[in-house]
Amino acid sequence: MLPGGYTAVLQARNRDEFRDEVVRFTQQLGFETVSAVTMVDRGLGKSDLVMVDNTPTNYVEPYVDAASGKLDPVLQHCKRQTVPIIWNQNTYVENGVGELWEQQAQFGYRTGIAMALHLPEGKHFLLGVDRDRPLPTDPQELQRLVADLQLFAVHAQEAAIRLLVPPAQQPERPALTPRELEALRWTMEGKTAWEVGAVLGISERTAVLHINNAMHKLGCVNKHQAVLKALRLGLID
User: Fold this and answer.
1) Quick one: angle between helices 193-200 and 204-218, nearest 10?
2) For residue range 160-201, what is the model confidence (pLDDT) as tens digits?
3) Residues 6+ positions from 38 with CB-CB distance below 8 Å
4) For 165-222, where are the alpha helices, taking DSSP H only?
5) What is the reported pTM?
6) Domain CATH number, residue 52
7) Do 107 and 207 lie in a common domain?
8) How far apart are CA 60 and CA 104, in angstroms?
């Protein structure tokens, strides 16, 4: 794990610093290129999109080509699911678009990992890392790569929403109850829902309810993201 990268991206003060930290983490993880996309739905099929990446200059135009995006199996997977996708040439061939892989492989996009966080209020965050050499064949090593990237994505989307989404579209500071804040504090300490319930003198089911309510109010998809957002907003320390 690369804990320094998680903290650094949260502390980014502007778009350039955010990009630098995303690229730095990506390369420390063993990948050459990265794309971090923040998207806000506007209704009627329209969305505002901000992309931070280090795409090779001579590949920028085909990389952002909308027609190719509709055929790209990795992008289509991320639009529909939150489960990470580990992709290579076979991913494209099996979906009948091997020519897309042939095109991008010339620029180092031979294999990679991509994932998406679909957040409340029509906000989405996509993160993909790529490289020109095969991914590890050892299942445990590959699992660690995916886990590190997932945890980084949770941190990075917090920074991306703060830095890249216009202030008028920022979510309001939520009002959490004392019990919800206590449940998040103990979750931050690594306690399970059962342990949180024991500490607070409530049932495990009630502890889960407080945590889920906090997640909903904070607009988060899991308890770890909720803890991070509560920390950033100064709700807990």
Assistant:
1) 110
2) 988 887 766 655 668 889 999 999 999 998 999 999 999 999
3) 49, 50, 51, 52, 123, 124, 125, 157, 160, 161, 164, 165
4) 178-188, 193-200, 204-218
5) 0.72
6) 3.30.450.80
7) no
8) 11
